[in-house]
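Support request, please re-run this one:
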Amino acid sequence: MKILGIDHIGIAVNDIEKMLGFYIRTLGLRFGGIEEIPDRHLKVGFIDNSESSPSAKTRIELIEPTSPESTVAKFIAKRGEGIHHLCFHVDDIEEAIGQLVKGGFELIDKIPRRGAENSKIAFIHPKSTGGVLIELKQLPK
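Re-run finished. Output below.
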């Protein structure tokens, strides 16, 4: 598996618009847009940390549930708003999943699914990663 970098840190929030004030106006970071993911009952807002090249920057992904049935709504109800996951950018997600399965790691997704920005994503269960939910992301080629 080849990790190309940290893609983003996912933060679960009740209201993206409310949190944008802090990240954009207070911290001076750049707003990268909002995308709806209806099949996962989510809205995601992207915050860029710099004007550097896409491969060199780590973004913040604000994740807002659009339904009480969403896994993020359940996360917020149980733990409150806050850091939800860490996402690594990989070159080949199918290869990465295969290596993890072979290594005995517990995955939430053994088959990649569609994520924001038309990417392929898969999550590794926190039981296998010291309590941290890890997302793997492959950008469209």
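Residues 65 and 73 are 5 Å apart (CA to CA). The helical segments are 16-26, 71-79, 93-102.
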